[in-house]
TrEMBL record:
The keyword Membrane is assigned to this record: no
Catalytic activity: 7-phospho-2-dehydro-3-deoxy-D-arabino-heptonate = 3-dehydroquinate + phosphate
Listed name of the protein: 3-dehydroquinate synthase, chloroplastic
Role of this protein: Catalyzes the second step in the shikimate pathway.
Principal location listed in the UniProt entry: plastid
Top-level enzyme category: lyase
Family matches, as CDD domains: DHQS
The species this protein was found in: Carnegiea gigantea
Amino acid sequence: MASTAQPSSLCFSLKSSSSFKGSVSKSTFLPSNSIKLGSLSSHLGSGRIGLHVDRVKAAVRMSSTQAESPAAVSSNIKMESSSSGVLPTIVEVDLGNRSYPIYIGSGLLDQPDLLQRHVHGKSVLVVTNTTIAPLYLDKVVDALTRDNPKVKVETVILPDGEQYKNMETLMKVFDKAIESRLDRRTTFVALGGGVIGDMCGFAAAAFLRGVNFIQIPTTVMAQVDSSVGGKTGINHPLGKNLIGAFYQPQCVLIDTDTLSTLPDRELASGLAEVIKYGLIRDAEFFEWQEKNMNTLIARDPAAFAYAIKRSCENKAEVVSLDEKESGLRATLNLGHTFGHAIETGFGYGQWLHGEAVAVGMVMAVDLSRRLGWIDESLVGRVHSILKQAKLPTAPPESMTVEMFKSIMAVDKKVADGVLRLILLKGPLGNCVFTDEYDKEALDETLRAFCKS
Ligand SMILES: NC(=O)c1ccc[n+]([C@@H]2O[C@H](COP(=O)([O-])OP(=O)(O)OC[C@H]3O[C@@H](n4cnc5c(N)ncnc54)[C@H](O)[C@@H]3O)[C@@H](O)[C@H]2O)c1
Ligand SMILES: [Zn+2]
């Protein structure tokens, strides 16, 4: 019988495919209190692990245009081309009959076929905001309609900002869809960052009980994280992302050229999630980032294409194994419990999500070290890479131990009154999701990072 119980401690050592040849490497580290890979199935659904591993292999399957190394990626991206432009790199998210491709590349919005093949009906609703519309809306409408007179495109332009990720703004999407008499065969297209992607996805999940939807993410945060995996939703005044649905898109189209207009601070914020993948499950990727962070910050297109691809591969693998967050998917929240406390305590909009997550990762790493679970040297490496990425490594001075404690006590990862955390354990690239840690060590970490 499949167990639905939440284990108190899960160790995740199923690693991403470091060779990029579509295989899953064997676990290299299994600490004594971990649940070994074979028994992971009892927490994710009995007997499903073999199937899952096969799916992971499929999830990292390379398209003919995909490369084996960063250098090769760069040459492919520059050199491979077709009559309609540069061929995209494709990462598959393998979810059975809800599987979908992530297209990654430069100039993909100039390739109408990529979008049009995923539009099934005659109407499309593009959801975007006041910042992105003047930059990319015409391009997207052109891509949807070029040589395709049958498709009618409606647009809805929402106000920009996390404070508008709410029910009132969501209603504007439904108003437009209903006024335009859109039917069940409509496709919703999210053009923007994580806020637009989460809102449009939720609207697509709910409108007429579910219509097709496509993600066109335009921030690093959305390209490496939020557009992949089907988490959609809005905020409630009492908490972030409390109302939503798991709803997968038909495809994700990442045109890396859109990053050229992204402000530096937003770019750095997204890099926090890239660093996260390295720390929780992909040591080789972390080492690549250590060598290439300056190139990323300088917005080198080939380096970015590689970082996005590898991030999407990591996310696709995790989502294929644990779509609805029974355990493994929670590891994508490294640093987020501390980070959410900063976002909530300091006020939304003051710190960007990735900035708060960066500090949260430093705090999680500090706690892991106090517990004796990681090597001292890893602490320095984490500080150093975050600094290179121009991300903060300490919380705002106004954050107190009490603020952290009270906000973390209502975190979604609290079970039976005990806070479960994602902590690093073992060599670089290994983590645990656990409530079995010394609570005094957590207090020490909080005291070390707060003035009062
Ligand atoms: N669904 C998930 O799995 C998931 C994961 C991570 C984050 N999120 C959510 O994502 C949101 C944060 O996403 P975000 O960091 O993309 O923020 P965002 O959507 O607010 O975008 C950041 C800013 O950049 C602007 N912008 C976007 N693309 C641009 C471009 N190409 N050029 C110039 N400006 C551009 C936006 O208008 C906005 O002002 C949060 O609401 C968070 O909860 C969801
Ligand atoms: Zn995040």
